Amino acid sequence: MERAGQVELVFSGGTARTGNHVNLSAVRTEGEHLWVAGDETATIERLVLDSPSAPTRADGERSFVLADVVDLPGPPHEEADIEGIARSAGWLWAIGSHSLARKQAKPQHSIEKAVKRLAKLKRQANRYVIARLAVEIGTDGRPEPVRVTADGRHSALVGGPGSENLADLLRDDEHLAPFLAIPSKDNGLDVEGLAAHGDSLYVGLRGPVLRGWAVVLEVLPEPDPADPTRLALGAWGDGARYRKHFLNLGGLGVRDLCPDGADLLVLAGPSMALSGPVRVYRWHGALAGRTGRLVRGEEITLETDLPHGDGVDHAEGIALLEPGDGPGAQLLVVYDSPSPARRPTPHSGRAGQLH
Questions:
Q1: Nearest Cα to 168, choosing from 194, 197, 189, 192?
Q2: CB atoms < 10 A from the CB of 249, how many?
Q3: CATH of 3-354 among 1.10.287, 3.30.420, 2.30.30, 2.115.10
Q4: Residue with more model confidence, 288 or 290
Q5: pLDDT > 90: percent of the chain
Q6: pTM above 0.85, yes or no
Q7: pLDDT value at position 2?
């Protein structure tokens, strides 16, 4: 893949005021529509591309508050740390990081205050959700998530108030359980990628990375027969409620997942608070079940290395644009902490394009 240009993402309203447009962590395309989310709020934004296959600009932002569509386990405006978006049939999926956060020591802090902050951990309930949002065409003629659609489909949550979440399911896991009490940027549990295919969701973990192996979980959300606003994590015929795939990404963790035919494109980066390397891999046959538990060798190949800055331009999300007249679809990349070069105006940022 080679760089093919940039797309200016123009934000307005609350997203620009909160600064969440410079903390983008997830992206998915739907024709001319671009769904994005940041990790500092509990909202999903919809932009409109000026071209579905070769865009240069996306604007017309509309912001959707998760708490308006589903009942979150935490306060309505507490951040959900959304790290992945997927689109499948009539649903828009979103997933929180499922991670603990450690307070940061900042340059202006005294030594005593900095040391105390490094001992403080924060758990926010809204981070531990998987949301399946029911989408229908709104009065503006564009897709929007709603609580209940006209045909009776309900938005619903895994990890709603008082119910089991994905982290709960991993409490006894032989590989992942020890990392549940470790903050995300310390190689603890940290969800940062999502893809939907059929009945399955593929959940990519930035951390932990286990002796160089990254982890992708496969789960089966299913409706709760007693409550249409809740989802439970179902089981396959063998009784397993999740599957683990271990990927050889050269010691990197998963930053995002993007379906491409029967394959998954995997955005990979450091699990810790480091800048680069950042790469895109192709997991061949992932969605066709053609690989085993260990994904290595010819089953996963390097597509490209992405440029990165020192403390800036952190690639966090990837999405395929519609195929155009060229040899194949272009890949869109969105960034957290964009550098000044990616900030043409205070209320916009530039995503990258690869082909």
A1: 189
A2: 24
A3: 2.115.10
A4: 288
A5: 81
A6: yes
A7: 66
